[in-house]
């Protein structure tokens, strides 16, 4: 028992009691802290399903300003005018409050009506002047901010439109849409309204402080004791505000992405009864956005209450001292009332300025998403001094081309070389995934090869003006691209300045005129989203007419008959031949039906040239080619031969 304290029967109990209480108290504090944390945070991925759309990388506030400031160029002059209104506003406000002091001290307390008329006139003048100011301010501010949005949104669209195909293959279109349409608005809040607001608050602060100091410097100093508390509170909350805003923006992007994907593929969704699954996906993101919005609201509400409390402390301090001074005759009643009124006006800019940090942080979450888009660089860049090509002869050369898609390990094309003379047709054949469409993408410079050179008329494509290159190529894809618009618009998309006669001539050549004439409104019939109101064959003939009217020397045909039945396939063969005649054509097909009349055939296997020659040569020496040929049915071939 060495060193032991005297034993008491109650000590253990008392000590145990104290320890228990202490433990309970600590547990309660822990619970309270956890509850507060939960109240003020947003769970980023509570269902653990993984992010559909990633959050954009964080960007410092200063950098956000630097990036968007150039877009204010057109409106900066007007910004000065707005600032003039901003300065005048608190002056009128303070004068009005001062008038109130005169009303109390010189009219109400002495019960003297003499001053009534001049005071009434002064009030009328102030109200009228305030109205004019508010009107001018509103109109100018809206003009400046809408001009800013106009410039930024246009620029963003132009930028995104110019990005390489690789970007669109990797990104969710709906998210990009949500950035271009939704996030842009928030940047305005950040930049213009934010700055004007900040300056307005500073001006108000200066004017009201000056009047308050003039009235009573000691009371004013007392009132200012609480100012730092506003700042500290705002700083503590801003990080949470930003986290909630980023999450909300990210979820909005996901919602747009799912909407675009599900509604864009509605036939697939309904045919496979995937509505419930799609709805589940949508609901998860929708709920995520709801949670983030609620977190924002909770943070804003708690912040508002804390700030109110701080403000009350300041007002009570002043009221206490002010009443004491009133009782001792150092202050008039009007003076005290006016002082307290001005005080609330003083707190509003202090509060506003500290709250602005939260607004900035919240808007910067949207700005980060825009900056991330603006920072995307096209994978193919135009040379600094590009070559003007004009109309090409149409000589195409693939020299030792090797290409691997970004993020993949196996090359899609490996040391591929071939040449197409002007007016000649080369068919690229091979099994699915052999690399045929990749060759077409390289020819349109959607990507640049990793090794080797692609030439048009002997010029490396990388030296040509991108527009020139694409002006010289007309393409027809497996999946016909038709816009929501009239038949006429869709054909004229190949050459917007085409006359009506040229459009009709192209439709005739594409064997499309007959079906177009039978449509309810002929060439003015609207073909629906992606041309869904037309049949596959009709869409393809429309695309042939479009390629005809473009009249480019190089033609790229990527599986033009795939997806069509034998009848429709046969129907477009004749117009296709007409289109191909006199143009250098690369015809991509794993369907050997259409490639028999090509001058030469390149047989691709796993990205390499397995064989190269005419149809008869390949048939004679390549077992793989012969197998592919047999696969696509000599019967069908015979039918086509009989027809042509
Ligand atoms: N955007 C892409 N990103 C990554 N890999 C791709 C991309 N596009 C195609 N690939 C891959 O490159 C290879 C060649 O594809 P490509 O589309 O050129 O084949 P293809 O011969 O045209 O096939 P198909 O006849 O089925 O259209 C394939 O293995 C494919 O998976």
Automatic annotation (TrEMBL):
PROSITE patterns: ABC_TM1F (PS50929), ABC_TRANSPORTER_1 (PS00211), ABC_TRANSPORTER_2 (PS50893). Keywords: ATP-binding, Cell inner membrane, Cell membrane, Membrane, Nucleotide-binding, Transmembrane, Transmembrane helix, Transport. The keyword Cell inner membrane applies. Residues 91-362 form the ABC transmembrane type-1 domain. The chain crosses the membrane at residues 78-103, 115-136, 221-238, 299-321, 327-347. Signal peptide: none annotated. Residues 396-631 form the ABC transporter domain. SMART domains: AAA. Belongs to the ABC transporter superfamily. Siderophore-Fe(3+) uptake transporter (SIUT) (TC 3.A.1.21) family. It is a multi-pass membrane protein. The keyword Nucleotide-binding applies. InterPro entries: AAA+_ATPase, ABC1_TM_dom, ABC1_TM_sf, ABC_transporter-like_ATP-bd, ABC_transporter-like_CS, P-loop_NTPase, Type_1_exporter. It comes from Streptomyces gilvosporeus. Its main location: membrane. It is found in: Cell inner membrane. This is ABC transporter. GO terms for molecular function: ABC-type oligopeptide transporter activity; ATP binding; ATP hydrolysis activity. SUPFAM superfamilies: ABC transporter transmembrane region, P-loop containing nucleoside triphosphate hydrolases. One of its GO terms (cellular component) is plasma membrane.
């Amino acid at each position: 028992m060495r060193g032991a304290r005297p034993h008491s029967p109650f000590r253990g109990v008392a000590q145990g009691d104290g320890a228990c209480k202490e433990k309970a108290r600590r547990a309660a504090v822990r619970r309270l802290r956890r509850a507060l944390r939960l109240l003020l945070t947003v769970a980023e991925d509570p269902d653990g399903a993984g992010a559909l759309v990633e959050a954009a990388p964080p960007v410092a506030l200063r950098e956000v300003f630097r990036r968007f400031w150039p877009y204010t160029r057109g409106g900066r002059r007007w910004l000065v005018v707005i600032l003039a209104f901003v300065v005048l506003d608190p002056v009128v406000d303070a004068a009005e409050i001062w008038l109130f002091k005169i009303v109390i001290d010189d009219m109400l307390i002495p019960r003297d009506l003499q001053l009534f008329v001049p005071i009434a006139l002064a009030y009328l003048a102030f109200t009228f002047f305030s109205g004019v100011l508010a009107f001018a301010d509103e109109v100018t501010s809206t003009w400046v901010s809408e001009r800013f949005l106009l410039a930024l949104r246009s620029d963003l669209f132009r930028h995104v439109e110019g990005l390489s195909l690789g970007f669109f293959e990797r990104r969710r279109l709906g998210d990009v849409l949500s950035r271009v349409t939704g996030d842009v608005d928030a940047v305005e809040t950040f930049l213009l309204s934010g700055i004007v607001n900040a300056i307005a608050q500073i001006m108000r602060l200066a004017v009201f402080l000056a009047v308050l100091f003039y009235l009573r410097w000691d009371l004013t100093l007392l009132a200012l004791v609480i100012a730092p508390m506003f700042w500290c509170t705002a700083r503590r909350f801003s990080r949470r505000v930003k986290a909630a805003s980023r999450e909300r923006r990210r979820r909005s992007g996901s919602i747009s992405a799912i909407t675009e994907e599900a509604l864009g593929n509605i036939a697939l969704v309904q045919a496979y009864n995937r509505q419930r699954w799609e709805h589940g996906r949508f609901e998860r993101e929708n709920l995520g956005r709801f949670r983030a919005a609620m977190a924002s609201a909770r943070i804003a509400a708690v912040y508002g209450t804390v700030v109110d409390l701080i403000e009350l402390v300041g007002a009570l301090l002043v009221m206490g001292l002010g009443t004491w001074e009133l009782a001792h005759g150092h202050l008039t009643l009007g003076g005290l009332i006016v002082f307290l009124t001005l005080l609330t006006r003083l707190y509003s800019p202090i509060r506003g300025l500290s709250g602005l940090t939260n607004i900035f942080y919240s808007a910067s979450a949207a700005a980060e998403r825009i900056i991330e888009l603006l920072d995307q660089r096209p994978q193919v860049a135009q040379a600094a001094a590009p070559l003007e090509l004009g109309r090409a002869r149409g000589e195409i050369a693939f020299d030792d081309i090797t290409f691997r898609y970004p993020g993949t390990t196996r090359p899609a094309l490996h040391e591929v070389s071939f040449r197409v003379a002007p007016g000649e047709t080369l068919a690229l054949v091979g099994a699915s995934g052999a690399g045929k469409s990749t060759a077409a993408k390289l020819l349109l410079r959607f990507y640049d090869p990793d090794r080797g050179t692609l030439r048009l008329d002997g010029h490396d494509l990388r030296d040509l003006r991108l527009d020139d290159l694409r002006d010289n190529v007309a393409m027809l894809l497996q999946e016909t691209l038709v816009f929501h618009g009239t038949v006429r618009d869709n054909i004229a998309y190949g050459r917007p300045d085409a006359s009506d006669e040229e459009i009709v001539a192209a439709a005739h050549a594409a064997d499309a005129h007959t079906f177009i004439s039978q449509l309810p409104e002929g060439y003015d019939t609207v073909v629906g989203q992606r041309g869904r109101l037309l049949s596959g064959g009709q869409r393809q003939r429309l695309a042939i007419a479009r390629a005809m009217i473009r009249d480019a020397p190089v033609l790229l045909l990527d599986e033009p008959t795939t997806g069509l039945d034998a009848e429709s396939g046969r129907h477009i063969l004749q117009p296709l031949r007409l289109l191909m005649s006199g143009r250098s054509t690369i015809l991509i097909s794993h369907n050997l039906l259409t490639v028999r009349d090509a001058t030469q055939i390149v047989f691709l296997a796993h990205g390499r040239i397995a064989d190269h020659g005419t149809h008869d040569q390949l048939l004679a020496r390549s077992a793989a080619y012969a197998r592919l040929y047999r696969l696509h049915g000599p019967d069908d071939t015979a039918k086509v031969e009989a027809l042509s």
